Amino acid sequence: MTAPLITLTVRGEPAGQGNLKGTAGGKLRHANGRDLHDWRGRVRGAALDLLGAHEYAALGKSGVCALCSVPKTQHAELLGAVRLEAVVTVARPKTARSNWPITRSSSDWDHYGRAIGDALTGVTYLDDSQVVDGRCITTYPYVHELALGEPGAVIRLWAVT
Ligand SMILES: [Zn+2]
């Protein structure tokens, strides 16, 4: 495997995306809305910082960015197929006996993947449909070789050619 094009280190409690709950008004909301919003903001912020990038700023209906004149259809780092691997470190409960988070104390791997995939849309790639090869590993601090010492994630992206 060649070296990743982009390696992001994000700190903070990872949140999964996918568990919905009904509101009194009959709408569906993410069950962990506030935590999810915070986590996605951290992931996106880490990518913007690393790449020295900015959010697309619509210039009327011109379809180009008001800040850099790049068309919206090209306003991301990677424009082709992408491989994404995330190693998500979750807090280890005091009662955990296993070396791996295999209880309901953490979210499902695909929910972590969905949150990270969405958070990076429009920054590292245009659309998360570009991720043709995705992998999400959940681990406790210091267990996996890319685990952090505290909750967070190491996210690596490669261009697939
Ligand atoms: Zn721009």
Overview of this protein structure:
- This is Holliday junction resolvase RusA-like endonuclease.
- Pfam families: RusA (PF05866).
- GO terms for molecular function: magnesium ion binding.
- The chain has helices at 33-51, 109-119, and strands at 6-11, 20-22, 28-30, 82-89, 131-139, 152-159.
- The longest helix has 19 residues, at 33-51.
- The chain is α+β, with helices and mostly antiparallel strands and 161 residues long.
- A four-stranded mixed sheet has the order 1-6-4-5, with helices on one face. A two-stranded antiparallel ribbon has the order 2-3.
- It has one domain (6-159): 60s Ribosomal Protein L30, Chain: A (2-Layer Sandwich).
- The structure holds zinc ion.
Short description:
The chain is of the alpha+beta class and 161 residues long. The protein has helices at 33-51, 109-119; strands at 6-11, 20-22, 28-30, 82-89, 131-139, 152-159.
Report strand order across the widest sheet: 1-6-4-5
Distance between the termini: 13 Å
Strand content: 15-25%
Question: Order of SSEs, N→C?
Answer: EEEHEHEE
User: Sheet bearing the most strands, described?
Assistant: 4 strands, mixed
CATH hierarchy class name = Alpha Beta
Helix amount: 10-25%
Number of helices: 2
Please give the CATH architecture: 2-Layer Sandwich
Topology-level CATH name: 60s Ribosomal Protein L30, Chain: A
Extract low-pLDDT stretches.
none
Cα-based radius of gyration, to the nearest Å: 17 Å
Bound molecules: zinc ion
Write down the overall mean pLDDT.
Answer: 92
Count of all domains? 1
The total strand number stands at 6
Q: What would you call the structural class?
A: alpha+beta
